[in-house]
Write a structure and sequence with these properties.
102 residues; alpha/beta; Rossmann fold; 3 helices; flat
Length: 102
Amino acid sequence: MTGKTVLITGATSGIGAHTARLLLDRGHRVAVTGRDETRLKFFLDETGHPDRLLGIIAAAGHPRTIADGDPELWAPMVLTNVLGPACWPTPPCPTSRPPAGG
């Protein structure tokens, strides 16, 4: 992958932030999302690359705690996150392939 544009959700910390930094270091353009505007701004400022990095506030209208949420609205998200990868036509990485003979 060279010179691609990549979208990373939840990129203000953890694996998402590390992946964004890695892709930027390799010369890609990266769009990142985060729920917390302050953390997202800090990430954008400390990462640099303003010419190749775009920050987008995501989930700004969603409740901040589980107690404030609506479980009926969670079903589409859970189905996408859990069943989505199982429906891919090809495995996303070698570790996702079924064992030989199985």
